[in-house]
Amino acid sequence: MISGNFKRLLAEHRIKGFANRRKSSGINSSTGLVGMILDTENLEEKFSLMDFHRSLDVSRYNFKLVICGEQVELPEGVEAEFLNRSDISFIGKFKTESIENFANETFDCLICNYNESSWTASLLAAVTTARIKIGVKPDVYNIFDVEINTGDIQIFRQEALKYLKILKSNS
Questions:
Q1: Alpha carbon distance 31, 151 (integer Å)
Q2: How would you label 72-82 residue by residue, b for 16+ Cβ within 10 Å and e otherwise?
Q3: What is the mean predicted confidence (pLDDT) over 1-21?
Q4: Cβ(12)–Cβ(90) under 8 Å?
Q5: Which domains does the chain have, with CATH numbers?
Q6: What is the pLDDT confidence band of residue 117, given thresholds at 50, 70 and 90?
Q7: pLDDT for the residue numbered 1
Q8: Backbone angles phi, psi at 64, to 5 degrees
Q9: pLDDT over 60 (residue 93)
Q10: Gyration radius (Cα) of the chain, Å
Q11: β partners of residue 54
């Protein structure tokens, strides 16, 4: 059995490799898809982010959500995939088809709000393709195009929307 620390170190190596490639740089056309990655830390506070697509006028069918951590009960009407450490192989590959499909999507934007110690969330964010990736500072792996320096969910939401509107008006 491979220890959790060794698995984390291998995943971190993979994160850095994907972050260095900056997969977001080659996307020119809009897909209409929005992705979000959250962790289960303070998840009840983060429930307000789960309708983020409405603020962007994006259909809920074009909004994909992954929550990293143990599966929990979600508010009615919220659909999400869950990713925990056991769903990742020791070389950092996703074992579940739904998470692999998420990682292979091309999103207009990827919104990430997770604790910096969540290497599972960082791995998924690093390998997922998006025109723009927005996340919480500090970005220890240099994954995000925009870092928002706040621990407050509502301020994070407001700032992310502000940046997305600016970027949308400039494209």
A1: 30
A2: eeeeeeeeebb
A3: 61
A4: no
A5: 4-170 (3.40.50)
A6: confident
A7: 43
A8: -120, 135
A9: yes
A10: 15
A11: none
- pLDDT of 23 reads 45
Distance CA 90, CA 6 (A): 8
Q: With contact defined as beta carbons under 8 Å apart, do 69 and 39 qualify?
A: yes
Would you say 94 and 18 are in contact if contact means Cβ atoms under 8 Å apart? no
DSSP 8-state code for residue 13: H
C-alpha to C-alpha distance for 25 and 129, rounded to whole angstroms: 9
36 CB neighbour count, 10 Å cutoff:
23
By CB atoms closer than 10 A (0-12, 13-18, 19+), residue 163 is: middle
Digit-coded pLDDT (tens) for 16-32: 666 655 544 455 667 88
Residue written as tokens 């998924």?
124
